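Please describe the entry underneath.
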Amino acid sequence: RDKRLRIKEDRDFAVYEGGEQITYNPFSTTAFSNNYITFNVKTPSPRVVLDRKIYIRYTIQLTFNPVANPSNTKVLVSGHDAFRAFPLTSCMTSINLQINGVGITLNPEDIIHALLRYNTCEKVLDLDYSTAPSMLDKSQDYAQLYNTNRNPLAYYGDNGYQIGRGGFVIKSLVNTNTQAVLVAEITEPLFVSPLNFGAGNSQGFVGVTELDVSINLSNLSRMWSHLTSTNGVVFNEQSIVPQISNPTLLLCYITPKEIFPIPTSVSYSYYFVRDIQTNQGIVVPPNTTANLIMTNTQLASIPRRIFIYAERPRSGTGQKTLLTTDTFFSIESVSITWNNINSVLASATKQDLYQISKKNGCNLSWDEWSGENSPRFNSTPIGQNDTEITLTGSVLCLDMGEDIGLNSLLAPGVGGNYNLQVYVNVKNIHPTDSIAPTLHCVIVSEGAFTILNNTAIPSDAILSKVDVLNVSQMPEADLPPLDAFYGGSFWSKLKDIGSDVLKGFEKALPVIKDIADVGVKV
């Protein structure tokens, strides 16, 4: 019926049930330096709900002393200088999150720029993540996109679609031709499961008495990005003197109404992340391919998904510096040995691998992901060579059971003993640098994080072969479209299984596991 003809005498009103009291609690610490930050939080009560979106706010002062400035310009120049995307996270060698004494450890600096290429659209970067510089690098070298709208170092007025990192607000700046001193306040999410980040919300923590966060930092000069070639101001690692101050966790507590029932046991979506790194010491010249082999690895459960990419090493030939972008080699082909089955995906073309990645939430276009040369034609002067831009490079994502086959008794989350080895043919698409790449295989296992009687129990092998067999007898349900998950977790297409987006599944038969959030055949 025409909506204009849906005439009713009465108006229906919804009753929204929220907390009795909402408390925002900035929690400061004095236990910090340029090498570490530590927080020890005691919650008000186990009955109080803690929002799982937790941010770290900090003040950063950077003092710039250039090695050379032959053009005698100011030290910092728009289009040449800006913070790196998520500058503190980019320098976190490790973060340890302890909930009720149980710890989860992640190495953010090695994975954040790759995983943010999934399920993280520009709208999320410019809104949900806009309290930090967030525009991701889009070319192999900053010079390639200089003076274009896609330059991530551009200031606010250069791009009407996405805010360049050079447009991030600062508190103070002294900028001369010999030295610059910049102060900014930045707020970044804590990218560690079972915390939430990105768009939307889901159930908060209840039963938490203690929450401790320990962060290790290194090479803080890499909080900054600098382009040297077009204005001549020369920086090196010693040119920047950083100083962190006022680190603060931004916490939100919700006090439920007295009549609100609090369960004694609550399970949350949890992703156990393991980054297997291999550096064979192979120096790859520009525009050259190389075969990289991941160390044969034993897994105690079947993961949900696997990310594969090759990038600059932390140290060695072509290492990461403040002058380098956070981009990747192109992946030409892969061959995977899974559970003694060889040559998985060996016949897949580069285009096939891109389509798989796109299906799994990749934000990159084919031009960006493939690393193929993007032309830039020069009309004048006659005889000047046309130029080519090499873009982001490849981050391949594979979903177990969908892109890598599993037999009828196996599914992601089933425990056992499985072997995994990855062979990758990659290409160095940087125009000038020889690089000894590090191959990353980021294994993401989906499980549950259960809080019970003020204790915490993380589990990643939550299913057995019997569970899989039982689920095969249950009714099927389709996952919602992938765009329902954009802005959510990059760990999985499922985002947070307890979220409202899966309400259509609530009548499905549960799998025979108390800690499982959903038990349907998908």
